[in-house]
Automatic annotation (TrEMBL):
InterPro entries: HAMP_dom, HATPase_C_sf, HATPase_dom, His_kinase_dom, HisK_dim/P_dom, HisK_dim/P_sf, Sig_transdc_His_kin-like_C, TCS_sensor_his_kinase
Protein name per the record: histidine kinase
Subcellular localization, as worded in the UniProt entry: Cell membrane
Swiss-Prot/TrEMBL catalytic activity: ATP + protein L-histidine = ADP + protein N-phospho-L-histidine
Residues spanning the membrane: 9-35, 178-202
Enzyme class label: transferase
Domain of life: Bacteria
UniProtKB keywords: ATP-binding, Cell membrane, Kinase, Membrane, Nucleotide-binding, Phosphoprotein, Transferase, Transmembrane, Transmembrane helix, Two-component regulatory system
GO MF terms, alphabetically ordered: ATP binding; phosphorelay sensor kinase activity
Membrane-topology descriptor: Multi-pass membrane protein
Domain Histidine kinase: 272-500
Pfam family membership, one: HATPase_c
Length: 504
């Protein structure tokens, strides 16, 4: 069952119950009000009629007389009412003394039920009854008010009289029957109209949700996370739902892009690692085959070691190549191990480190690195008394990566190391006057296995150094600033947060 149908049924059901309660309440209120007013009128009429009763004596054959009750001008007041004046005897039927001409004309009398008779005898309260009179074979509903009074002569109680006043109520019953039918038809029509309107209103209200569903299905089928749901309605629940879905799509797009990039990087990493390992392995295998060929020939001929000086020199060069490539493979494997630790969430052990001694030690050891450029150590006084939270070994590795990288790309000129201060951060600056980089290369220099443009000469190295450096900086809560211009050199500034400031 759709939401639209459920909403329509709910609205229609609630409206139907509301109309039912309203109609029932209206019916009860009108019934109570009209019949209460009619009873009040009958009570007032009873009181007026009671004032017009009189007692007369009728002679009997035995020389006495019998009391008889009469009402003066009875027919004048009996146009819309029934009147009957009776007296009660102990176990005998009521004796009717007088009644209105409406009753006389049809030969009718107003009945007194046993329960009403007992109340009349015992109390002086008005007794209200609803009953039916059969007039010309037709049942006529009436409301009847009865009340008893004492019949006395010379202060002596003779009997108990009853005055009954009644009125037909078939007009009222017809009105209430018509009211019932009218309310039922009106409620039915209202519910049908409300259900129809509710159906269309629910459809209109839920149309944006249908648009959201259609748009989401298109995105699902097309697998295009760049698309967004267009909604120009008010900022209601549907508007917030649309914004939430669009934000979710944005996050999914970001995560999907990151996964794609990670997958491409992984494939590129495996490809580059395979290529980097294949080259030294090929070199080692070639040199081993060369040595095997030279030495096996000499050993087979029984000459022992090759006597030819050229062969000896070639053997030494081959062994040097093997050692160099093995060293390169060792560095590559170590670098890959460092990055694998970073990917696995390896956390460095950080502790407060006095920065100046560490930098001075790195500067001293950098003098012995292979280089063609001049090594200049600038002003490091700004580091006096400064402490950073870091790992000493990784901090040294970080500085050596940038220094070796500067030496590698600077065939002539200089490489300079100095320090600068910016509020609560300290910057270690490594600047060279080498070939520099194009601005388009800067965003990629920290990618794994990224190398400088081959058109400017392929440089030695694994292409993992700057990736490791970026990881070390991130672990230390720092940042890296790159300033470069092609043909003029590159400057790297490593910014680290200071955890202890020297006292003034």
């Amino acid at each position: 069952m759709s939401i639209r149908l459920r909403l329509t049924l709910w609205y229609s059901g609630i409206l139907a119950v509301t109309l039912l309660l309203f109609g029932f309440g209206l019916y009860l209120f009108l019934s109570f009000y009209i019949y209460s007013d009619l009873e009040k009128q009958l009570n007032d009429t009873w009181k007026q009629t009671y004032e017009r009763k009189k007692t007369v004596g009728i002679p009997t054959f035995r020389g006495g007389y019998q009391l008889k009750l009469e009402l003066d001008n009875l027919d004048t007041f009996s146009e819309n009412y029934f009147f009957q004046l009776s007296s009660l005897n102990e176990e005998e039927a009521p004796l009717i003394h007088d009644r209105s001409s409406l009753l006389k004309g049809y030969g009718l009398s107003l009945p007194i039920s046993e329960s009403a008779r007992q109340k009349i005898v015992q109390t002086d309260q008005f007794i209200v009854e609803r009953l039916n009179l059969t007039v010309s074979n037709r049942s006529v509903p009436i409301i009847l008010v009865s009340k008893g009074f004492n019949i006395s002569e010379n202060g002596q109680l003779i009997s108990r009289g009853v005055l009954q006043v009644g009125a037909p109520i078939y007009y009222y019953q017809n009105f209430f029957n018509l009211l019932q039918y009218s309310l039922a038809i009106l409620a039915l029509v209202t519910v049908l109209i409300a259900a129809t309107l509710g159906w269309f209103l629910a459809r209109k209200a839920l149309r944006p949700i249908e648009q959201v569903i259609v748009a989401t299905q298109k995105i699902e089928k097309g697998a295009d996370l760049d698309k967004r749901i267009i909604y120009d309605g008010p900022e209601d629940e549907i508007g917030r739902l649309t914004v939430t879905i669009n934000n979710m799509l944005g996050r999914l797009q970001l995560v999907y892009s990151e996964l794609e990039e990670a997958y491409r990087a992984q494939r590129r990493f495996v490809s580059d690692a395979s290529h980097e390992l294949r080259t030294p392995l090929t070199t080692i295998r070639g040199n081993v085959e060369l040595l095997e060929k030279m030495w096996s020939k000499s050993l087979t001929s029984g000459q022992g070691a090759p006597a030819n000086p050229e062969h000896v020199e070639m053997s030494i060069e081959a062994m040097q190549d093997i050692a160099g490539e093995a060293h390169r493979m060792s560095r590559l494997v170590n670098d890959m191990l460092s990055l694998a630790r970073a990917d696995a969430g390896f956390e460095m052990e950080l502790r407060p480190i006095e920065l100046k001694p560490l930098v001075e030690e790195v500067a001293r050891r950098a003098l012995f690195l292979p280089r063609q450029a001049e090594w200049i150590v600038g002003d490091l006084d700004v580091l006096d008394g400064l402490t950073v939270r870091g790992n000493k070994d990784y901090m040294q590795q970080l500085l050596f990566i940038f220094i070796e990288n500067a030496f590698k790309f600077t065939s002539e000129g200089s490489v300079r190391l100095d320090a600068l201060r910016s509020r609560e951060q300290i910057g270690l600056r490594i600047a060279d006057t080498g070939m520099g980089m194009d601005k388009e290369e800067v965003p990629h220099i920290f990618d794994r296995f990224y190398r400088a443009d081959v058109s400017r000469g392929k440089t030695a190295g694994t292409g993992l150094g700057l990736s490791i450096a970026k990881w070390i900086i991130d672990e230390h809560g720092g940042s890296i600033e790159v300033i470069t211009r092609e043909g003029e050199g590159t400057t790297f500034v490593i910014w680290l947060p200071v955890v202890f400031l020297p006292s003034a």
